[in-house]
Hints:
With 47 residues, the chain is mainly alpha-helical. It has helices at 2-14, 32-42. Residues 1-46 form the Transketolase C-terminal domain.
Amino acid sequence: MVYTVVSAAEKLKDEGISVEIIDPRTLIPLDKDTILKSVRKTNHAII
Length: 47
């Protein structure tokens, strides 16, 4: 799944769209601060 997301992010970058990817499996215990920082920065969250 992560490969698919990274691939999509690269395609979006080619179109001038910036994205931020956080893999929650690497945030054990769940790092809510990192997720909230990303949401505040981008104003978006897709889970």
